[in-house]
Specification:
Elements: H1 2-25, E1 29-32, E2 38-45, E3 48-56, E4 85-92, E5 97-104, E6 109-119, E7 122-128, E8 135-142
Antiparallel strand pairs: 1-2, 1-8, 2-3, 3-4, 4-5, 5-6, 6-7, 7-8
C-alpha cells in the first residue's frame, strides 16, 4: 500500500510541472481582437509575454497606411499600427497572466492589463487604470 501511495505521489509531482508549462503556453499564438479588425501574435520573450499586431482589416487602406494617429505622443502619430507591440510585460503566476500593459491604438491610451485563458480558443483580457476590479474585459478568439 505504501508503495502504491509513493508511486502515485511521484507521478503527480512529476506531472505538475508539465501542466504548468502547458498552461503558460495557452496564451501563445495568434488571436483575433473583439472587433475582428486585427490579429495579434503573442510570444514569450524570456518569461515576458508580448503581443504584436500582425494583420489589420481596414477597408480602403493598406496595412502600411494605417497610422497611430490617436497616440497621445505627437511624435509617434506617424508610425504604422501594423507590427506595433500593443501588449507587453505580462507574466504568468500559475493562474493568469498579469502585470502587463495593453495599448489601444483607437484611443491612443495604455492600460494595465491581465489575461486569462478560460477556453483554449478564448482569451479574456482585462484593461484597467489603477485597480484591476475596475476596468473593461474583452474576449479575443484564437486564429487557427
Amino acid at each position: 500500500m505504501k508503495y502504491i501511495l509513493f508511486t502515485l505521489s511521484l507521478i503527480l509531482c512529476l506531472g505538475l510541472p508539465n501542466i504548468q508549462v502547458q498552461a503558460q503556453s495557452e496564451i501563445l499564438g495568434t488571436w483575433l481582437n473583439t472587433d475582428k479588425t486585427a490579429q495579434i501574435k503573442i510570444i514569450n520573450n524570456e518569461g515576458e509575454y508580448l503581443g504584436k499586431i500582425t494583420w489589420l482589416d481596414v477597408p480602403g487602406l493598406e496595412d502600411s497606411q494605417v497610422l497611430d494617429l490617436a497616440n497621445e505622443d505627437e511624435s509617434l502619430r506617424d508610425r504604422p499600427v501594423m507590427g506595433l507591440t500593443i501588449l507587453k510585460g505580462l507574466t504568468y503566476d500559475g493562474e493568469k497572466w498579469k502585470g502587463g500593459e495593453i495599448y489601444d491604438p483607437k484611443s491612443g491610451k495604455t492600460y494595465s492589463c491581465e489575461a486569462r485563458v478560460n477556453d483554449p480558443n478564448k482569451l479574456e483580457l482585462k484593461g484597467y487604470i489603477g485597480f484591476s476590479w475596475i476596468g473593461r474585459t474583452v474576449e479575443w478568439t484564437k486564429v487557427k
